[in-house]
Here is the input.
Amino acid sequence: MAAGNIKILVIEDEPTIIEFLRTGLKYEGYNVLIASEGRRGLEIAQHTAVDLIILDLMLPDIDGMEICKKLRIEGNKVPIIILTAKTSVADRVSGLDTGADDYITKPFSFDELVARVRALLRRTGNELEKTVLKTDDITLNVETREVMKGTRPVHLTPTEFSLLELFLRHPKRVFTRETLLNRIFGYDFAGDTNIVDVHISHLREKIQDKPPKLIRTVYGTGYALQPENE
Here is the structure.
């Protein structure tokens, strides 16, 4: 199933996180439904065929645990990822025992979240994710975390790997510095966008990205991957 046909319901009341998830998931091509209130989210889940739910626990009107529990009692087997600021093992166990499929604590990076989303969708047969990404002479293996330039291994930091994976998944798409900052470092990162330029510079150096560059600078905007043979 193509990503554009996959519906993800986000039940979350924090505006910053709502926008972070809406923007990021739409970039990945998913159809995103938003509910800022628990009861509204439950209603959507009960009457709309969604493929996955991202569920905040601390909602103002109804606890996320109750939403999860009610859906499972009704026989709804939709994959559920719980978001919460609670970090104790007991809280995680409680969430999973209620019927959730995965559990992510706030703050979180988008890369971590989307990896969990893809894993759950693969498990339910809704998405066939590419695990080996290639362009020109660059090959990236998502599962083994290996990067090759031709026959030479390239050793990247986790941040550099995440950036390269994002570019390879979305060739020609222009990413602003702000989008890259949010995607790689999370919605709560308060640093300067110049840090993106630093990591891009290091990535280019390691993959020997020489003119005409594979990772192009879009002046005044951000960066985009432009395959040499296109």
